[in-house]
Amino acid sequence: MTILDQINNNKRREIAEAKEKISVEDLKKSPFFNRTPNSLKAALRLPGASGIIAEFKTKSPSKGMINEEAEVAEVTAGYVEAGVSGLSVLTDLNYFGGSFDNLAKARFTNPRTPILRKDFMLDPYQVYEAKAHGADLILLIAASLSKEEMLKMTELAKELQLEVLVEVHTEEEIEKLNPLVDLVGVNNRNLKTFEVDVETSVRLGKLLPDDLIRISESGLSSVENIHYLRKHGFEGFLMGENFMKTDDPAQACIDFIAQLNA
């Protein structure tokens, strides 16, 4: 059993428990449910956009604890000040130290910035959760969903005016994409071995439909990485650990984007 299998099994238990506590009808009563979401697609296409999607996460299965002192409102505000195109906030507690509280704090602090709910999305119920807690888009991991499940989740997200980022890491997973998907992320980390190779983005990027915005995920640590991937058609760059592992993630992001724009 892979780590992804373990995470998904745990997530299914969490979803079942959540459904017992809060109904979809209750989620629809959230004040966030009637807000108009921000568009990451539009943000990435703005002239001079950095393309950086900065992530807030305090731990990961591959690295363990990354930064237990970081405060989400302070860090995400700093990311936005640095000039990121979007934010990613983990909501998985067990494996990534995330929470809906972190998502809500990031939302209140950064009302006009696109925010991705980063989690392991396996059930339509979670799409309602994302909307209710202030997310602008959701992540669907192709390795975790069938083509039919992905279509169902995407259709619901579009109903709720949320954008959809689909993550792939193999050629076969590209076949699961559907016309409603907004953005495609190529995960440079092998979900079975956790090895990272930026060339995965280059290789799979060539196989993606021309109309989809390409986002490279995992293992991005240098300005050279970003320049290289831009030459291969990537417009978005999901970065978390590179900033979060420092004593001051916001300043690390400010310095990085300053170098990127130099």
Structure description:
By secondary structure, the protein is of the alpha/beta class. The protein has a single domain (3-261), classed as TIM Barrel, CATH 3.20.20. It is 43% helix and 16% strand. The protein has 13 helices and 10 strands. The chain has helices spanning 3-21, 24-27, 40-44, 72-82, 93-96, 100-109, 124-132, 147-159, 171-174, 199-205, 223-231, 241-244, 249-261, and strands at residues 52-56, 59-60, 64-65, 86-90, 115-118, 137-141, 163-168, 183-187, 213-217, 236-239. The strands form 2 sheets. The chain has an 8-stranded parallel barrel with strand order 1-4-5-6-7-8-9-10, surrounded by 5 helices. It has a two-stranded antiparallel ribbon with strand order 2-3. Helix 4 (72-82) packs across helix 6 (100-109) and helix 4 packs parallel to helix 13. The longest helix has 19 residues, at 3-21. The N and C termini lie far apart (45 Å). The mean pLDDT is 95.
